[in-house]
Structures are given as C-alpha cells and as structure tokens.
Amino acid sequence: MLEIEVKLKVENLKEIQEKLFSIGCQLEKGLYREWNAYYDFPDGRLGKAGQTLRLRLIGKKAFLTFKGQPQKSRSFKIREEYETEIKNLKQFKKILKKLGLKPVFEYRKRRMLLRKGRLKICLDETAVGNFLELEGRQSDIVRLAKQLGYSRKNFIKLDYVQMIKGLRGKNHSSSSSSKSSSSSSTSGSSSNSSDSSSNSSSGSNSSAS
Questions:
Q1: Which pTM does this prediction carry?
Q2: How far apart are CA 155 and CA 7, in angstroms?
Q3: How confident is the model over 171-186, as pLDDT tens digits?
Q4: Cys-Cys with 77: which of 36, 59, 147, 157 at CB 3.0–4.6 Å?
C-alpha cells in the first residue's frame, strides 16, 4: 500500500474542527491517546535506509507498521506502508528482541480521526504543537487544504519523530549555550577576583621589602 500524506500546522484546534465539520467531514473516532515506539537494529540500518518499524498502542490494541523509504516529491510525503494488528503484544516484543530489534525512540500524542470520502483526516496534539494530517489522493489533499485556507507552501513533509528530535536538538543547543555563557561569566568574575588578589599581594610584599 502506498501512503500519501502531508501535515499542516494548526493554531486553533477547535476552529479547524468546526471548519472540517462545516465542509462535510465525518467523525470516525473521538479524541484518543496513542503511544508510539520505533524499533531498529543496533547498527541503525533501518533509519539509515529511510525505513521505519513502528509499534503503536491505542488503548488495549497494538499495531505494527513498516514504512519504506520516502519517494521523491516536492509537496507530499509518499512511501510504502504495511500495517497489521498484534494480538499478543508480550510475545511479539520477545520476537522483536530475538531478531535483534530494540526501541530507539518513543513519543505520545492525542488524536481525533475524521474522514471525507476516501481522505483520512487526523487532528493531532503533540509535544511540538497541534497539526492536521491529511492522507489520501494528492488531489483530495490539495482540495481540502484549500477549503481550510491552506496552500501547498504550508505542506509539511516531516514526521513527528523528526520534529520532536529537531525540537530537542534546539533545546539542547540553547541549554548548552546558556550554560557556556554562564560559565564564561563566572570564569571572568573569578579571573578578575584572582587578578585583584594577586595585585594586592604584590603590593603588600613590595611594601615589606
């Protein structure tokens, strides 16, 4: 199966939700929580190949999804996707472990699922903000986005893992810069204090001699 999707940044979830209902979108599943874990081999071969293996928990249900390397597209994220439900999660995790696969990234989100014809519409609340995810035929995605006031320039191809990692990287850099600045300031203070002490000591010895 070929997955074609985009994300759109949402400032006001309630407003977008009302717009979606006003243009005929149907609610398929009310707000629910998801837990997602991504698996890879110790050498990171799946990630290096642009592939993902995701374990998703929704309530008591579990799903395994494999996604292939993204295909070239200027506006859309297009990739092969295969998904199946897992009936015995405990045993399945043991299988993954025996195969040498281990969890390398986890995140949670809240999602509301809607549909309009064959178009899948998700309203997501995540650690990096609120988003509208559209999945289906390119023409349907463009048409619905336009009805909501978006254009192709607003399309986001990044997935949530990339966004969250990017945010964490920025926060780490900001934190490191802040610590470095604080350290330099402290070091400068100590240096001035040390110079002052040295000068004072030198003057005292000169006076004694």
A1: 0.80
A2: 6
A3: 767 666 665 555 555 4
A4: 157
